Structures are given as C-alpha cells and as structure tokens.
Amino acid sequence: MASGLFGLGAGTPSRFPYEDRPQSGPGIGASSGQVIRARFIIITTATGGLFIYAGTPGPGNIPVLWVTEAATDPFGNALPFSGVGVKNGSLLAGITDTSSVIVGSTTEASFGTLNDSGAGGTSLESSTFGAGDVSAFFELLSKNVNGIGPRMLIGNAAVLSTAGTAANPTQITTDGWNTLAPINGWANVAGEPLKYTLLPDRMVMVAGVITSAGAAGNPIFANLPAGYRPATQQETAAGLHGAPPAGGAFMRVATNGDLSIPGSTVGTGPWSVSWTFSLDYA
Q1: Which structural domain, as residue segments, surrounds residue 12?
Q2: pLDDT score, position 130
Q3: Which of 3, 218, 256, 258 is close enough to 184 for a disulfide, judged by CB 3.0 to 4.6 Å?
Q4: For residue 39, how many other CB atoms are within 10 A of its CB?
C-alpha cells in the first residue's frame, strides 16, 4: 500500500485519525462501508477534477457536482460549463472559470449569469430559450423586514446598454438621451432639440420643439433607429404653438420609425413634441 494511504481491515475500530499510525504526509483513512474519511483531498492534474454522480458513472451520465477546468468529465460527457457546478435534475448553478456566477437549466439555450466585468463593474445577463433571444426577465424579491411586507420588482424589458463593451455587451445601465436629427426640411427650435430615449418598461420617449418651416408639406419630421420602433403604428395629439390647422393635428409613429404630423403645413409651428409610446402595443 502506498505511503500515506491506510485502510481498515475486518474488525478494525472506525476511528480517525489513527493515533498509533503517524502519517508522513497527507493521507486517506477509509472507514467501514462506503465512507471515506480524510484530512485533505488534493487534486493536482491540470485536466483532472472532482466528479460526483447520481447513478453509475459513465457515458451519458453528467455528474451532479463537478470541480474542474476541463470541458468534459472523465467519460467524455460535455459539462454545461467549466468551474464549480451543481446539477439538480435540469437545474444548474455554479461558478465558471471566467468569473461568472451561473443560474439556469439544461433546457435553456444559454444561462443567466452575474459577470465580473472588471474595474469594479458587474453585469447581469438573462438566460435565453430556444434558438432566438427573448426579452430579458428579471425579478427582485425583498424579505419581510421590520413589519414591511415583501416588495417585488419585475422587469420584462430589453434594457439598452450605453456602458457595455465588446467583452461585456450586456452590462446594465439605463439609456440616455439620444439626439434625433430632423429631416425633410423640418428644424429644431434653438435650445430644445429633438431627442429620444428608451425607458426600462419598453416605452420610448421623444421630446423637443420643432418647426415645419421649409418642410415643403412633408409631414415626416424624423426617423427613429432600429430598437426604438414600435410593433404597430401609434398616434397621439400634436401640440402647436399658435392656431391649430383646420381639423386639428396629430402625431404618428410608424413601424419603420417614421415620426410625422399629418396635416402640418409649411410655415406652421413651432410644434411641441413630448410623447411616450410602447414598443409592444398591439
């Protein structure tokens, strides 16, 4: 038997450590039955690891717990991720070898992750289902503290990132105000330029003051980029500084991002734009 490795024979008392058996180095002492008692378990190979299975280890049986830098277990089974992982049925949790905390399921196309983005930043990324992405879903539930009932915050929104990087494109920060250039002869009023922003509840807000002088009767005054366009056309009342045109006026946003004021005429305005519309309204 190798130095430092001791077993128990029949009738040997189950006690560990063995006072009468000094060990020159780390060792394992086996007790009766299928229990192993040890001071240390040291795994040193670069591609080795610790693997625990439910049922018989072998091809097709992914371990329920693993600690390894390898992409597969000793039987060639692909691990959901390298690092420290736990699997309970289809549910997964663990810490990857890329400094991410994983929560998810084997039925998902990707896992929800809490990532260390460096320089003190942390990003939260939702999981996805199937071949395509879906809107991010986040839920925060507080405990009942000091007599105050639990509070739940549910978000089902694509949060636009303005602070993400190529390495961490999903770092969560709220969208800022983006400049929207007037087109077709429409122009900003000084000091109140046309801008837009995406709100956390998947609402887009457009604000500013514009004039149609020089628009040559074209009612389309701007075009929103992809990601800010609604699923269906929507309309709202338009605000005019001065006498409104005959029959009034309204503002429209089309599915291609065109913003317009049908019924506007050359020389009328300024027009006040302060509108929030839904990306998902149908």
Answers
A1: 5-117
A2: 59
A3: 218
A4: 11
